[in-house]
Amino acid sequence: MKTSVFFIYLAIMAGSTYLIRMIPFVAMRRKIENPYIKSFLSYIPYAVLTAMTLPACLYATDYVISAVIGLLAAIFFALKDKSLTVVAMAACIAVFLSETLIGLIA
Length: 106
Hints:
single chain, mainly alpha, 2 domains, flat
């Protein structure tokens, strides 16, 4: 890739990123007081993070069923208020065991 093309791409990316971050500051002149809108806005980061990571979780293994088993293990341990390390280790172990079992069967 030529350097001039790279800098054009970089300028477009920087401009679009800046606009996405700048528009809410320009559009919102005063503090948001509505509790429903504040509640809605507080959940946006979690929704975006879930939308970005869930598809990657489901297709990171050889079999989708093992990914679902790992996801269910992670959800189970997260609902039991375990630490992030325990949740991640439980999900990895569940995926490993299910992949091994599927490999033996198939």
